[in-house]
Amino acid sequence: MSVILEVKNLKKYFKTPGGQLHAVDDVSFTVEKGKTLGVVGESGCGKSTLGRTILHLLDSTGGQIIFDGEDITNVDKKKLKELRERMQIIFQDPFSSLNPRMSVSQTIEEPLVLSGKFKKEDLYDEVGKIMETVGLAERLRNSYPHELDGGRRQRIGIARALALNPDFIVCDEPVSALDVSIQAQILNLMQDLQEEKQLTYIFITHDLSVVRHISDDICVMYMGQLVEKSPAKELFIHPMHPYTRALLSAIPSTDIHHRKERIILQGEVSSPVEPKPGCRFAKRCQYATEACMQAQPLREITPNHFLACNRFEEIGEG
């Protein structure tokens, strides 16, 4: 498989009265074409900022973004318009991300019109094809977002993202606002579309059950940095980083005969504003030593399993 996206040492800082907030700090990874990279972590860890920076919805502070072999870190407006056709996003809230004054057909039609690639007389049929692809009934053409349930609204968001046949989509917690039964329908739809159109996803979520179901590889983020990256199955069988283990221990289990031991994190949460060098998880980690106060680069511990922790020898088999 060829690599469609490569992120190198990406940084996104925000100015605050107390200094620079390191929302995304020195993040590197690759995504293969047609695959799904899951990005997990607690709220505020920088997942959404990472996705939006890759898409140029936010300007990066440093690092490189290479898409399909081309460096797109700094691009002009003309190039950015071209990229918009190939790189899209599905937002978390399917209500606030839609214009309440635009009908279903108008919302899906908008990117087609802006692209300038479709004749006016062809727009009606093109919208109908896209609606059919995402499972929206023809009778909903003239409906407005407030008239629809969450599942149908999110299908509109997916339809809008698919309108110009992109290659790559950032899915920013696309099912977190939906009921469980509707979540399953949307996830199945996204997987079917990926197989049919060879789409590449970055799937951002805090729901580990969801990311396990849909991802090929998973990155775990903590305080703006990647602490672990591995194939999805490997991460759930053999998590190495103490933070990853704590996250996995919080997943509810239906096995009443084997009680899961819950890892309760103690200690102070580090500030992302002008953070000190070293592991940002150290103050909450039971394995922390003086060595953890030094920078912890992401290293390949076993094939395709990367870890930012200098204690893996001691905790790796634990």
Summary tags:
318 residues, alpha/beta, four-stranded antiparallel sheet, 10 helices, globular
Explained architecture:
The chain has 318 residues and is of the alpha/beta class. Helix content is 31%, strand content 24%. The chain has 10 helices and 12 strands. It has helices at residues 47-54, 77-86, 104-115, 123-133, 150-162, 180-197, 208-214, 232-237, 242-249, 312-315, and strands spanning 3-16, 19-32, 36-40, 62-67, 70-71, 87-90, 168-172, 200-205, 217-222, 225-231, 299-302, 305-307. The strands form 2 sheets. It has an 8-stranded mixed sheet, with helices on both faces. Strands 2-1-4-5 form a 4-stranded antiparallel sheet. It is globular, with a radius of gyration of 21 Å. The two termini are 33 Å apart. The mean pLDDT is 90.
Q: What's the short version?
A:
The chain is of the alpha/beta class. Helix content is 31%, strand content 24%.
What quaternary form is this?
A: single chain
- Order of strands side by side in the largest beta sheet? 6-7-8-3-9-10-12-11
Shape: globular
Care to count the β-strands? 12
Question: What Rg do the Cα atoms give?
Answer: 21 Å
Report the mean per-residue pLDDT as an integer. 90
SS-based class: alpha/beta
* Number of distinct helices: 10
What percentage of amino acids are in beta strands? 15-25%
Could you list the spans in which at least 5 consecutive residues all have pLDDT below 50?
none
Helix content: 25-40%
First-residue to last-residue Cα separation: 33 Å
